[in-house]
């Protein structure tokens, strides 16, 4: 998948794509007035001058040279004309387009906010991407929308790598990223972030833009956007009522009924806005088990906290020599980590937690994204590894590799490893820190895979942060070890 700026000769095909998706998925639910307004807005003679003057920047998503999605953004940072062809929807293309546009808004347009007009049903979708409601619901020309925005920060600029195509693949700009990552790459962000967040409770001022204006209020800055449900690749389908979940968001979590303990949230939050030469920010969230009837309760909670705090400890609280040297070599060092989590499985005897960690480890170039998991017995505090729960043999390796390549949608994925190397990595050998084995349990089964940390410019890097292979409880049964681990899983089918 290629995401890039469109050339002028590609504008007309992009507008045809917009109309095709709109007519098929959206127009039937609109009033005749709304359809007419939209049709008038996307006329080539209206859009082309804006394109030529670069008042509207168009981006396209291409698969094998074929345009399958498009989106535009005005000079004011307002997203519009966000459409993905029906056959390419629900593959993460919209998320890639969104991240690309966000990067453009920060790096090229230097806008303070990225805005969108969201249909009321799409508000939760945009909230998942980090946008906030900035005003009450409005109606113009029979079209209802809610104004929303997100602060434009260099800390949220990330490389657009290969996107999640299935629920268990996370990519560097996946998203959930905009929702969970509040990292920074400059001192000014530290000082202005809190003020910017407070601003999201205020109404956006309506500011007409230069260029085409029909005279009825729908100009280039206030126009038509993905929030009205127009075929976005992340699941804004014909009704704009559903969002394809990917990564941890797609994991069907399990929580046993009437748990004897409560799951609360703690946060390690620290911003040092006094240092003029170093940017330091940490926002680490993790669950705490309260009321746990176990002699190992304190040990369990400390293990969970330590897993969440791994990066903060490594780069700031107890920095390694490598980090110290990196910081000393930077004009403006950046030490930041943002961690969110999902309790994938919570039973009376066992809990499985997955953490996503996005960090700057000394510099803007040293950006790192990781998945970490902890799987722990609640009676004795035992922490389980992959090697403890499945028999790591060639039969498992073959089945597991097939699943992994299916998730990556690439038959060459992990081709650099022999079977024995794969098994060694699953058993705990990271192979110079590249392949970190992890697993998590959820309502439907177990996911087993790698957190991937390829060196820069490694030809085997396909752009994934982590990939896990899904197994139902029935499928994993033939590979399950004879350890006591499986006795802890309430829903495991023997």
Give a written overview of the molecule.
- This protein is an alpha+beta fold and 494 residues long.
- It folds into 3 domains: 2-246, 3-Layer(aba) Sandwich (Aminopeptidase), CATH 3.40.630; 251-383, Heat Shock Protein 90, CATH 3.30.565; 386-484, no CATH class.
- Helix content is 27%, strand content 28%.
- The chain contains 14 helices and 18 strands.
- Strands 10, 11, 12, 13, 14 and 15 form a 6-stranded mixed beta sheet that branches.
- Strand 13 (334-346) and strand 14 form a beta hairpin.
- The longest helix has 17 residues, at 93-109.
- The protein is globular.
- Residues 161-245 have low confidence and may be disordered.
Oligomer state of the chains in this structure: single chain
Report the CATH superfamily of the largest domain.
Answer: Gcn5-related N-acetyltransferase (GNAT)
Low-confidence runs (pLDDT<50, min 5 residues)? 161-245
Q: How many domain regions? A: 3
Named CATH topology of the largest domain: Aminopeptidase
CATH class of the largest domain: Alpha Beta
Radius of gyration: 24 Å
What is the helical fraction, as a range of percent? 25-40%
Number of helices: 14
